[in-house]
Amino acid sequence: MSRKPLIAANWKMYKTPAEAKAFVDAFLPLVAGHTRDEIALFPSVTSLATVVEAVAGSNVLAGLQNMHYAEEGAYTGETSATMLKAVGATHTLIGHSERRQYFNETDSIVNKKLHTALIHGIVPIVCVGEHLHEREAGLTGSVLLAQLKGALADIKPADASSIVIAYEPVWAIGTGKTATPEMAIGAHMIIRAEIANILDSSVARAIRILYGGSVKPDNATDLLDQDEINGALVGGASLKPDSFASIVKY
After folding, report:
1. Which listed residue (38, 68, 91, 96) is catalytic?
2. Number of domains in the chain
3. 229: in domain
4. Domain presence at residue 1
């Protein structure tokens, strides 16, 4: 089954609106006419409207790195799905390892956010992955299974077509370490098999699973040429237009 790759740039807490606009202006000509992959930029909330406006009419989409599950309310510092849609965002990251690690996001919170994104027609990229001590203890499979069961609880197969999963081995984020293609494929196969168990086999065959652990121009081809790897969630290497364009055009 064809799964159009998604190459996503997670800018984390970098780039002012002016810097984001400069990036888009330099980046769009580098990927003009590129249709093999879906391309999405995930700026901080202060730059989201700027990026949405800058990519309008292009082959590049915009999303946000985080989204609250509530429709509205007294949640200081948070952003709702309605707010995302109001400025033209189409995607959101959910449960990134840094959100789990630094902001205590649980699988239950990830699940609530996923339900909200689906209700509002926002494409959710749900992040899962293990820490180094868990991999070394042989717990990668059990960690992934627990995270997927929590994230996908009470999701109906008929509503799951837009869901994207990002496998991000936490030990490979910002460390310069990267999973080998074989390691990534093994994790992706575990994820796909569990999605078949939780939802159904047709959803599992169709769902896109991205790799997100220190993807760079020099390793992108080896990773993204694998059938089981349906795109990338790129961190540091997405901050420069030429670097990210090289990954997009692997």
Report:
1. 96
2. 1
3. yes
4. no
Parent domain of 188: 6-248
Q: What is the DSSP letter of 171?
A: G
Decide if 72 is catalytic: no
Provide the whole-model pTM: 0.95
The stretches of the chain forming alpha helices (DSSP H) are 17-31, 45-55, 81-86, 97-103, 107-119, 132-136, 140-151, 181-198, 201-206, 220-224, 241-248
pLDDT digits (tens, 9 = 90+) for 46-99: 999 999 999 999 999 999 999 999 999 999 999 999 999 999 999 999 999 999
Catalytic residue (one of 38, 105, 134, 168): 168
Cβ-contact 45, 77 below 8 angstroms: no
If we measure between CA atoms, which residue out of 12, 24, 44 comes closest to residue 241?
24
Please give the structure tokens belonging to residue 242. Answer: 């030429």
- 38 strand-pairing partners: 6
Tokens encoding 206: 């169709």
Query: Are the C-beta atoms of residues 105 and 155 closer than 8 Å to each other?
Result: no
CA distances from 155 to 4, 126, 136 (A): 23, 13, 31
pLDDT at 132 over 90: no
Q: Which residues, listed in sequence order, are joined to residue 39 by a DSSP beta bridge? A: 7, 60
Tell me what the mean pLDDT of segment 169-198 comes to: 89
Residue 75's identity, in one-letter code, is Y
> Is 194 known to be catalytic?
no
Question: Is 91 a domain residue?
Answer: yes
Written as six digits, the tokens of 46 are: 């202060």
